[in-house]
Amino acid sequence: MDDILNKIKAIDSEKMYKSINSFPVQIEKSYDLKVQNIMKNISITEGGFTNIIICGMGGSAIGGNLCKTIIDFDININIFINKEYKLPNWALKSSLVIISSYSGNTEETISCYNECIKKNISPVVITTGGYLFDKAKKNNNVYIEIPKGYQPRAALGFSFTLIFLFINKLNLINNKNLKKQINSSIQLLKEFNMEMFSNNNAALDLASEIYNKYIVIYSSQTLESISYRFRCQLAENSKIISSHFIFPEQNHNEIEAFQNSNVNNIAFIWLSDESDSKKITHRMKITKDLLSNIGSHYSICFNKVNRVGRILKMISYVDWISYYCAILNNTDPSPVNKIKRLKALL
Fold first, then answer.
1. Which amino acids are annotated catalytic?
2. 192 within some domain
3. Which helix or strand (DSSP H or E) is residue 283 part of?
4. pLDDT tens for residues 183-219?
């Protein structure tokens, strides 16, 4: 660990490890943030919401993805994560539209906000400031101001928890224990993070095996938000290209894709959870056996804690793996220069 610590000091210019470590603290602090103009929102729920549309991009979108994963089994209306310039055609005044943009200046998300106003849909805005913050105040929309000082992808604790707490505040979630489970996960995550930044930790060990390989991430559909998060963190933190695919769909196409591909440097990461259906677990086991002669294989699964705790722990774990992959590649995990350059050219 001493060698890694020396590398971290030399490479991690903005101390990304502190942001990853702050995940449970962000969850904790979210409970204290105030929802502004809440009475206006209560007035538009009289007929009941017919669906939830969460608009966001990149690091701001993953909060919606994670929230959907946690509450999908305990809510009676559909949740749609919108990563587009426009709302879906079926968006109505009865839709609960949440506009999530850490900077408040995300081009695609601003477009969705403006479309809400044109359609007379009163959106909920979650941001640190910028255009969306100013417009939400001016138009008397419901808004929640997130603390500044993080990169969007590193503010997941805030974005996920605030979306959850707001939906929960509207009594749309059937399982009243979910809020308690999230709260009880805070200490669990703090202790876990201490493990992940100590000698001989599991995240560093796994990163050491995969940092120089092409990474293929597999999971059930219920864990896709974690697979997606892992892939995005490998892209932004580690600057590594990877892919993710879900079961059972993988069995209907991608399983055939390795016959004529360069498979010498592939690392398969298998994400699983005890809540996965027995059929999915069975399919994944058979598929893993069929691909056992290709690349290297690594499994990630947590137990001995409730489902919410397992999901949040797995999110934290893949973040740490992506961080160590960056350090082992002598790459500063914080800058996203190509993303900034792209935005400047748009």
1. 236, 252, 343
2. no
3. helix 278-290
4. 999 999 999 999 999 878 999 999 999 999 999 999 9
Q: Is the peptide bond before 24 cis (omega within 30 degrees of 0)?
A: no
Q: Is the separation of the CB atoms in 37 and 137 below 8 Å?
A: no
Give me 33's structure tokens: 């943030």
**β-sheet bridge partners, residue 100:** 126
Tell whether 342 is covered by a domain.
no
C-alpha–C-alpha distance, residues 342 and 129, integer Å? 21
Task: List, for residues 151-190, the tens digit of each pLDDT value.
Answer: 999 999 999 999 999 999 899 999 999 999 999 999 999 9
Are both 171 and 23 inside the same structural domain? yes
| Angle made by CA atoms 78, 174, 169, in degrees to the nearest 5 | 85
| Shared-domain flag, residues 82 and 162 | yes
* Three-state secondary structure of 12-40: CCCCHHHHHHCHHHHHHHHCCCCCECHHH
On whether both 169 and 219 belong to a single domain, the answer is no
| CA–CA gap between residue 293 and residue 205 (Å, rounded) | 22
Token output for 87: 């709302």
Strands 266-271 and 296-300: parallel
Q: How many domains is the chain partitioned into structurally? A: 2
CB 153 within 8 A of CB 103: no
- Is 31 within the bounds of a domain? yes
Indicate if 174 and 292 belong to the same structural domain: no
